[in-house]
Specification:
With 483 residues, the protein is an alpha/beta fold. The protein contains 15 helices and ten strands. The chain has helices at 3-6, 50-71, 73-83, 85-112, 140-148, 169-179, 199-209, 228-238, 259-281, 297-302, 312-322, 343-364, 375-402, 417-438, 447-473, and strands at 17-18, 21-22, 127-133, 156-163, 186-193, 214-219, 222-224, 243-252, 292-296, 326-337. The strands form two sheets. The chain has an eight-stranded mixed β-sheet with strand order 5-4-3-6-9-8-10-7, with helices on both faces. A two-stranded antiparallel ribbon has the order 1-2. Helix 6 (169-179) links the parallel strand 4 and strand 5. Helix 3 packs antiparallel against helix 4 (85-112), helix 11 runs parallel beside helix 12 (343-364) and helix 12 crosses helix 15 (447-473). The two termini are 38 Å apart.
């Protein structure tokens, strides 16, 4: 890949010494992606390298799993009397032991997480924003207004990519461009394509048209905060040199519309944000989502742009990781998106996400055997299919049986998972709440939806995900499915 794009010529404005922190200067970079060393790293009095954090979290996760197995021996014995020992061990491993290990590793990692400090730049690079739109007449103008409110100090190019919409998206976007007072550093173009070819195709067309070396993608129903773009770019510049993409923090903007949207508010706020943050600690956020992420143009071109798949963002992200590059996460570069408001829309969206995961394994399954800190997360994703299968066809029926007094699958031992789930949610809430306060945001007190998310959300999501895995494996027709 060309070194021109990757050269960090954007000098930090911080002094060499700030209080008790000593800040490295550009050019003082050393170590590989798994060394735990980062550019502009804060020289703390006590610094724990990333591999050491990884090892400690691994030990805690394994210790919790061993403890879970020990206390579950009576449960396994009772279940084995019905289904044999091998089946009993397999069921409890996929229902309890593996998820418990994952949650313990996640909690431990987040408690040790210290984000590399972002710093203002003296010169901000030009950014091309690609907004793919299909039948978005109701949201495209609002999205453009949020882009116009950005206070990004560098040049901004906005490309509205109308992918053959059958509604009035083209005219609404054109009128919005003429009406909205965009800042002087922003140039806006409307690119109308007569035939609908899909999101990946239209993004690749936008990539050809883009003028700048940094490419940002934003969904046509996503709203940015005025400092979102600046924070995203600063995170990219502050992360290790081999960071080639950074995912922004996506939160729900329409959570008040329906109960289904309210549940997803906590999924984005707790589940998705926590996982991305943990993965970025170990140099590999597995999905730089299309809703709001930044990429180096040369890197996109080197992997062939967005693939013609239903899960184009995850397949692209894995293609970048396959090259040995790093993908990060900017937890404070916040964007708000509209989530599905009905179960049908939700099911179609999550089925598409699940199909995208299977596609990622089809194209880049070799990542399972490429030793990196992030490799374990690839294996976790591989476990999702059997875990969701057992959850759907064994654990859910077991819960139903427990209501009638048959506890051999779900019973009193199942309650042991509740303290860990409660602790996990408390940790995530405190981390996210602190991030919100730093940005002048407040967490909405939607505790009814939180209760539903903790206790019932998996009973909705995991069967839907299983539906998506099977749809992809049997080769069912692919379509966007949320409109």
């Amino acid at each position: 890949m060309s070194n021109a794009t990757r050269t960090r010529s954007y000098v930090l404005t911080t002094p060499e010494v700030a209080g008790d922190l000593v800040v490295a200067r550009p050019g003082d970079r050393e170590g590989d992606e798994d060394s735990g060393q980062i550019p502009y790293r804060e020289k703390r009095r006590f610094y724990v390298p990333v591999p050491a954090k990884y090892l400690f979290a691994l030990v805690v996760g394994l210790a919790w799993m061993v403890f879970s197995i020990w206390v579950s021996i009576p449960w396994m014995t009772d279940l084995a009397s019905y289904v044999t020992w091998p089946v009993s061990i397999a069921i409890l491993t996929l229902v309890a032991f593996a998820p418990g290990f994952m949650n313990a590793f996640l909690i431990t990692s987040l408690l040790m997480d210290r984000r590399p400090q972002r710093y203002p730049l003296t010169t901000y690079p030009g950014v091309s924003i690609l907004v793919a739109a299909y039948n978005e007449e109701g949201t495209i103008a609002t999205t453009m207004e949020s882009i116009a409110r950005e206070r990004y100090p560098g040049p901004v190019e906005v490309l509205i990519l109308n992918d053959g919409s059958k509604d009035d998206t083209a005219n609404v976007a054109s009128a919005a461009r003429d009406r909205i007072d965009f800042p002087g550093n922003a140039a806006v173009r409307i690119c109308n394509y007569e035939q609908n070819r899909g999101k990946a195709a239209v993004l690749n067309e936008g990539l050809k048209e883009a003028k700048h070396d940094l490419i940002v993608t934003i969904d046509a129903d996503t709203l940015l905060r005025p400092d979102s773009l600046t924070k995203l770019v600063e995170r990219l510049m502050a992360d290790p040199d081999n960071t080639i993409a950074v995912a922004g923090a996506i939160l729900v903007g329409n959570s008040r519309e329906t109960a289904m949207a309210g549940l997803q508010e906590w999924d984005y706020f707790h589940g998705i944000a926590a996982v991305k943050r943990m993965q970025s600690m170990y140099h590999g956020t597995l999905v730089a989502q299309g809703a709001f992420s930044i990429y180096y143009r040369d890197a996109l071109l080197e992997v062939g742009g967005w693939p013609e798949t239903v899960g184009e963002d995850i397949v692209l992200s894995w293609a970048l990781l396959k090259k040995g590059w790093r993908t990060g996460y900017a937890e404070d570069a916040v964007a708000f998106t509209n989530t599905p408001t009905s179960f049908r829309q939700f099911a179609n969206q999550r089925r598409r996400w699940a199909r995208g995961l299977v596609e990622a394994f089809k194209y880049h399954g070799s990542l399972l055997f490429k030793p990196r800190l992030r490799t374990m997360f690839i294996w976790w994703n591989l476990l999702f299919l059997p875990m969701d299968l057992i959850f759907t066809f064994v654990f859910i029926p077991g819960v139903i049986l427990a209501l009638f007094g048959y506890y051999f699958i779900a019973g009193p031992m199942t309650l042991l998972t509740l303290p860990l789930a409660a602790f996990w949610n408390i940790v995530i809430f405190r981390i996210q709440n602190r991030m919100f306060r730093e940005q002048g945001l407040k967490v909405r007190r939607n505790f009814g939806a939180l209760f539903g998310y903790i206790l019932f959300y998996a009973f909705i999501m995991q069967p839907v995900s299983l539906w998506g895995y099977v749809s992809e494996l049997v080769g069912r027709q692919k379509k966007w499915g949320t409109k």
